[in-house]
Amino acid sequence: MQMKREDFEILNERVYGKELVYLDNAATTQKPREVLDAMTYAYTHFNSNIHRGVHHLSQIATRNHEEARQKVAQYINTESPDEIVFTKGTTDSINMLAFSVGELLVREGDEVLVSAVEHHSNIVPWQMMCERKGARLRVIPLREDMTLDMEALDKLLNEKTRIVSVAHVSNVLGTVNPVGEIVRKAHEKGVAVCIDAAQSAAHMRVDVRELDCDFMAFSAHKMYGPTGLGVLYGKREWLEKLPPAEGGGEMIEHVSFEKTTYNTLPYKFEAGTPDFIGSYVFGKALDYIERIGRAEIEKEESELTAYAEQRLKEVPGVKIYAAGQRKAGVISFNVEGIHPYDIGMLLDRQGVAVRTGHHCAEPLINELGVPGTVRISFGLYNNKEDVDKFVEALEKSLHILTGV
Ligand code: C6P
Q1: Sign of CA dihedral 81, 85, 299, 12
Q2: HEC string of 323-370?
Q3: What angle do CA 211, 215, 217 make, to 5 degrees?
Q4: Most buried residue, 205, 296, 324, 350, by CB count within 10 Å?
Q5: Is 404 helix (H, G, I), strand (E, B) or coil?
Q6: Same structural domain for residues 323 and 270?
Q7: How far is the CA of 119 from the centre of ligand 1 (A)?
Q8: Which CATH number do you get for residue 256?
């Protein structure tokens, strides 16, 4: 996988004169040359609005957009491409879903379940909907070892529960949640499940039919693809029933001032001109991932994560959160007595890009009882050399901060 670094020109950038070590892939990934080239190709060869024109360019653009939908469908193994709705990203997907589910299913006194490790994007949209509907947001807690308390889930699931929405992989801890088991338990009670796959889709095999989840959300920019594009997957029977969250062009069948009827799937959920350039480019990013192979990516990234945890443990004062748990390329840590922000700033000065703070998961950070964490996260181009450079830079930072 080492060779793949050459495909990512940005990795040759220098930061403060130092070689860049990019370890902020959970925030966004870098893009390989062929993905960048695809963007230029799209604008120079077929840019034209889709589903509207009879003219040549519009037909090519439409075909490419629909082929991209098929690629996404194959990537997560849906029954049909009609179950793939293009959105602006994970946040947009979950907001749309929360609105639609709220309208269809949720009444006063009902409950929505999320987990203690959720990103704000999988909390706030549900919270807003619960407020609107007089429903209650409930939380699957963490056990001591920072994995989800599945026994608590059994008790939380009841006749008032309308939907469970959980992260596949925590963007703070990197832990892989037992989403298959959550789906099984929820389905036993007739409750639908949404999986926030923002942190898993680029790092492991994600198969919606195997997981049997009802909905899934993810972002292209975390998958070596373009920003501003995401996906909402929904089982056909759900998408047929759910009302659209947004109205406008494309999502309609007929409009009169008295009444509007909606388009077929998936267009019913795609109001306005979709990002047809982004979808084409995303298709190329998926081709790139598939060529390397998700099994290979998962294996390499998990070895790298284990290596990084082991190297970090050698640094005095370091506390790794959820150490030793199954992780998908994300590690959060703190150093005793030092603010994570100070570490992040000093690492940056040495060319090492990490993220510090609450990582848009304030409830989890509060539960950890810290002001934030330092987070490193891997992409398919990272290697042991990056980890070694990061540990060296960390040791230097700690020397500056503590004098030892
Ligand atoms: N997490 C991180 O650095 P958007 O911004 O819509 O592409 O993705 C939101 C989102 C939803 N769920 C999870 C689990 C996420 O990790 C994210 C984005 C980034 O951790 C940016 S805060």
Answers
A1: positive
A2: CCCCECCEEEEEECCCCHHHHHHHHHHCCEECEEECCCCHHHHHHHCC
A3: 100
A4: 350
A5: coil
A6: no
A7: 7
A8: 3.40.640.10
Burial of 264 by CB count in 10 Å (0-12 exposed, 13-18 middle, 19+ buried)? exposed
| Number of domain units in the chain | 2
Asked if 353 contacts 378 with a C-beta cutoff of 8 angstroms, the reply is no
Q: Looking at 247, 265, 290, which one is the last position of a domain? A: 290
- Measure Cα distances from 262 to 36, 268, 270, 271, 341 in Å: 35, 6, 11, 10, 49
Cα(259) to ligand 1 centroid in Å equals: 37
Domain shared by 245 and 369, yes or no: no
If we measure between CA atoms, which residue out of 112, 104, 137 comes closest to residue 194?
112
121 CB near ligand 1 (under 6 Å): yes
- Residue 224 is part of which domain span? 36-290
Interval 36-60: pLDDT, tens:
999 999 999 999 999 877 899 999 9
Q: Decide if 279 is inside a domain.
A: yes
Strand order of the sheet with strand 355-357?
Answer: 318-320, 330-335, 373-377, 355-357
Element (H, E) at 192: strand 192-196
Q: How far apart are CA 180 and CA 240, in angstroms?
A: 24
Does residue 209 surpass a pLDDT of 70? yes
Catalytic residue positions, numbered: 360
Is 200's C-beta closer than 6 angstroms to any atom of ligand 1? Answer: no
Shared domain check, 306 and 283: no
Same domain, 239 and 300: no
Amino acid 53: pLDDT: 75
Q: Is the CB of 87 under 6 A from ligand 1?
A: no
Q: What is the pLDDT of residues 174-194, one digit of tens each?
A: 999 999 999 999 999 999 999
CA dist 329 and 200 (Å) reads 9
Q: Ligand 1 center to residue 198 CA distance, Å?
A: 6
Mean pLDDT computed over every residue of the chain: 97
The answer, yes or no, to whether any atom of ligand 1 lies below 6 A from the CB of 192, is no
Tell me, yes or no, whether 232 and 358 share the same domain. Answer: no
What's the rounded Cα separation, in Å, for the pair 351 and 390? 9
